[in-house]
Amino acid sequence: MIENLIKEVEQAMLNVLDNEQLTQLRKVLEYTFRNVVVTQKQNSSTESNNVTLLSNFIAAKKVEGCSVNSLGYYQSTINNALKKISKEVLHITTDDLRQYLNNYQVGSGASKVTVDNIRRILSSFFSWLEEENYIVKSPMRRIHKVKVGKTVKETYTDETLELMRDHCDNSRDLALIDLLSSTGMRVGELVKLNRSDIDFQNRECVVTGKGDKQRRVYFDARTKIHLKKYLDCRTDTNEALFVSLLAPAERLQISGVEIRLRKIGRELNISKVHPHKFRRTLATMAIDKGMPIEQVQHLLGHQSLDTTLQYAMVNENNVKMSHHKYLG
Question: Do the domain assignments include residue 146?
Answer without folding.
Answer: no
